[in-house]
Amino acid sequence: MNFTRAAERCSVTQSTLSIQLRKLQEYLGVMLLGRTRARVVLTAEGEQVLRLARVAVRATDRMVATSRAAHGNRLAAPPERLIEEINQLRSRAPRLD
Question: Cα 13 to chain center, whole Å?
Answer without folding.
Answer: 18
